[in-house]
């Protein structure tokens, strides 16, 4: 089990935390160095969502023809090349292409690793295996946060370090992940991707969760510094705490085994919405409490979605994971845009409370 889980965690860390989310962390320094305005920085950041969705759509096709081992290598290579490109970028065009290239890795990594777990681990270990691999994002945030703290003014060096770690992880996965031939979709790939009625409920749950959580990923740090008066050090501490607590999401597999998917999902939705309200309380302690709740619950919920998808779409688990994460990504893209509009029209308080209430509508979804 460890032979699959540890390199999988490392690959998710490189693709998600370094390749996708680190740009938002270093955006102020990168924008200043390349003389980018807010509109250009935001447009470049949105490229990660577009890349994410495109790679999620193509992942099942490639896995069906070439196998998950090939797609894992593809994910690692795109992440490394994207990180190197960001480090060396001298203008907005090179930066945009590099961010897009790094973003592609995320949509390839998750379905391929889900397929790997399904092929290599015994059925009773698969929920735990998928849950722990999913915590790679949190492990990566734990690494990227302190590096930002230490090398804030040397963002190019930081991205070179990210790329070096990515090369090691790529070679590690290439060496230890077996090149097992997966069971192909017996019908046309598009027929296999058509969700059933229970599958539609899963996609709706992912879409709503992505939408409601988007305001936190996009605006929580700005809210702390601009309205609550937190220092940059406190904001980075907030980011690190959120990452550390996300590691607790690795327990999702055992929790699902004990209380089943339905109760696990409802518990996650309640805690996620509550975290959006707690951050509004006027103290740094409340902010850190919110980070603890959001970090652990978001990773927990995405682990629930992975397990839910693998059970609905067996044996074509890469298709289920791709569709679930595609819905999550679309929800985040739409939610981020709507959150910015709501904050501009009203206030941060109203926006966070609105998104918290919207998240609770996920409780109405029937889980089968």
Overview of the molecule:
With 368 residues, this protein is mainly α. It folds into 2 domains: 1-184, Growth Hormone, Chain: A (Up-down Bundle), CATH 1.20.1250; 187-368, Growth Hormone, Chain: A (Up-down Bundle), CATH 1.20.1250.20. 84% of the residues lie in helices and 0% in strands. It has 14 helices and no strands. The longest helix has 33 residues, at 2-34. The chain is globular and about 50 Å long. The protein starts with a helix and ends in an 8-residue tail after the last helix.
Sheet of most strands: none
Q: What structural class do helix, strand and pairing data support?
A: mainly alpha
- Rg result: 19 Å
What overall geometry do the principal axes of the alpha carbons give? globular
Question: First CA to last CA: what distance?
Answer: 28 Å
Mean pLDDT over all positions: 87
CATH H-level superfamily title of the largest domain: MFS general substrate transporter like domains
Helicity level: over 70%
The H/E string reads HHHHHHHHHHHHHH
CATH topology of the largest domain: Growth Hormone, Chain: A
Q: How many helix segments?
A: 14
Number of domains: 2
Which runs of at least 5 residues are low in confidence (pLDDT < 50)?
A: none
Known CATH architecture of the largest domain: Up-down Bundle
Strand content: under 5%
Work out the number of β strands. Answer: 0
Please write the CATH class name of the largest domain.
Mainly Alpha
